[in-house]
Each structure stands twice: as C-alpha cells, then as structure tokens.
Amino acid sequence: MENDTRALDALFADASLGAPENAVGFVLWRLVHRYQREADRALVPLDLTQLQFMTLTMAAWLARAGEPVPQAALSRFGDIHPMQLSHMLKALAGKGFITRTPSAADVRAKCVEVTTAGRDVLRAALPLVIEVQQRLFGAEGAPGGDLLAALVRLDREHLGA
Length: 161
Fold this sequence. Notes:
The chain is mainly α. It has 7 helices and 3 strands. It is elongated, with a radius of gyration of 20 Å.
C-alpha cells in the first residue's frame, strides 16, 4: 500500500498540473455539472430538464429566420450528437413543445418546429435559467463579462476543431 501511495504521489508530481483545481477540464466539468443541477432544479415546475431547455432554446433561436430547422442543423449548432439530440427532441415532442416533420428538401431528414406551448414554456423558463446563471457566475458570466467573453472566444477559436 505504501508503494502504491508513493507511486501515485510520483505520478501526480511528474505528470500533472499539481492538483485537480489546476486543470481547466476538471474545473469546467465541475462547473458544468453544478450549473446543470441548479438549472434542472429551477426547471422542475415546468417539466423540463436543462438539456431539454437548451435543445428547445436552440430550436427556437434557429427558427427566428422563419425557415424549417433541420435536425442536422440543430445538431451542428449545439454540437450535440445526433442520437442524443433525437432523444431530446422525442421527449420535447411528447410534451407538446415541438413537432418534427419530414423535410421538403430531403426525405431522410426531419425538421423541428417549436409549438405555441414550446414558446410559452420558454417564456417561463428563460428567466429561471438566467437567474441560475447570474447566481453561479455573477457579473463575470453576464454579457460583456470577462468569463463569458473568454469562453466565447475559446469556443469560436476551436469551432469545428
């Protein structure tokens, strides 16, 4: 056991950043999970999870152009695996928040449309999720804040990487 402990100490002394909190990936992982848990709690009264909320929000955002939103475009926009997106959309359709129809341009593809009920639930959900964001990240996470600006910059630099 003592040799194992020394081997682990050596591993972390030689091949790490010294502590988990020095690793961006670890800190982001914890923050993302904390944010998701808090958003999930806030959205319970609306029968939404944070992932369903994000999927519905992205579909509504893309629909602002007035064109049908192909599932593939939604998958790319959110960087969501198509199968995970399909599960989210099935759940949202079951709740009456979206409809999926065959694409006029491609018979193999489906398009997503946010329903009136979906818009109504988004109208109620957005302030709840914004409050969670403000509580967890403060001014740093607000539009114009340093944290959000840094994350957006990194996202854009690595988009498609």
